Amino acid sequence: MQDIDIDDLAYVHISKGLDDVVVKETVLSYIDGENGRLFYVGYPIEELVEHSTYEEVCFLLLHGRLPKKDELESFTDLMKSERELPKELVAILSKIPRNSNLMDVLKFGIDYLAICDEELQSKGRVDNIVTAAKIISKSSTIVAYAFRYSEGLEIVRPSQELSHAANFLYMVTGVKPDSLSSKIMDVAFILHAEHELPASSMAALVIASTLSDLYSAISGGVGALKGPLHGGANEKALEMILSIGSPENVEGYVKQVLASKGRIMGFGHRVYKSYDPRAAIFRRYLESLSQQRGDRSFLDITKKLEEVVRRELAGKPIFPNIDLYSGAVFHMLGLSKRVFTPLFAAARTVGWAAHVLEYWRDNRLIRPRATYVGPPMRRYIPVHQR
């Protein structure tokens, strides 16, 4: 047996966290991190949130183009028709422990849908797009039902009158949203729909590359998003805002956190080295919501945070990200922070599905290597001789 020479492996370059490692080509989204710009299939995110809808963005990501009028109507009808869950799944959700993590419940729900799919392993691209639409629609219902059951509230059945995002807000809060709240929720779903290859999308791709099914890939995405280093940052940002309490306390809070080498939530991003365009959009809608509700408390604190952090970190590429403003917006819309990350996941199901379908066009099993740094070759010693 030839000995293992550790020195032979010393030249290998390791990219921890896979930083800047490119694993696929995509038409789905482009992040210009230096200039703070985001595009879905070539369309600026600002134009999509202004003129499009979440349903249309789902079609765009799944098909790689904007739909014609009749196509959008048909796709929207499909999503509406798939909002309700199998009655057996509803019964199970009603019995899940109330303190369960809603991300675990969502993951379970998606896996249960796979069990119900009799054609799980025999789908072509067209059928998988239909399956994706079903998962997108039902994921929001799973989150809403699970939340209301866990809070001891009566579930709210899906409405066929509302858009996908507005219906989610209605099912969670039990109140049909007004036009501004509906628009903001739609914008939130669009902004969370896709964002290139974060950990959750990569997890979905790894699973899909084995030629597993779409449900398993999306379930894996949910599992990855559950981790606090990926999802949940807007919950922490909201907690920070609530603990600060008023704009007058911002200066002292920021200086104290920076002095202790702590992290101020809602600032900085692995890819964006300038202002996150999603944060700018959420800030604008927080302003509109604050004006409508006659309550500027969250807006004034976040704006002061932005001012003080940028001043104290002048010269560093640390700017507000989506989490600084999204948590405040969701809170003002009446959403519990327990729903923030599941909402993110429900909206991102389309991005995960789109990446999987794109990758399957030229699939290759994802099988990276690890550099061995253990002991050199040695002989096994029987237990009685040790």
Query: Kindly, what is the distance between the CA atoms of the first and last residues, rounded to a whole number of angstroms?
Result: 22 Å
| CATH architectural grouping of one domain | Orthogonal Bundle
User: What class do helices, strands and sheet pairing give?
Assistant: mainly alpha
CATH superfamily of one domain: Citrate Synthase, domain 1
In CATH, the topology of one domain is named Citrate Synthase, domain 1
DSSP strand content: under 5%
The succession of helices and strands, N to C, reads: EEEHHHHHHHHHHHHHHHH
> Which strands sit side by side, in order, in the main sheet?
1-2-3
* SS field, number of helical segments: 16
Helical amount: 40-55%
Largest sheet: 3 strands, antiparallel
Nearest-integer average pLDDT: 94
CATH class placement of one domain = Mainly Alpha
Short summary of the structure?
This protein is mainly alpha-helical.
Characterize the structure shown.
With 386 residues, this protein is mainly alpha-helical. It has a domain of 168 residues: Citrate Synthase, domain 1 (Orthogonal Bundle). It contains 16 helices and 3 strands. A 3-stranded antiparallel beta sheet has the order 1-2-3. A hairpin with a 2-residue loop joins strand 2 and strand 3. Helix 1 packs antiparallel against helix 8. The two termini are 22 Å apart. The mean pLDDT is 94.
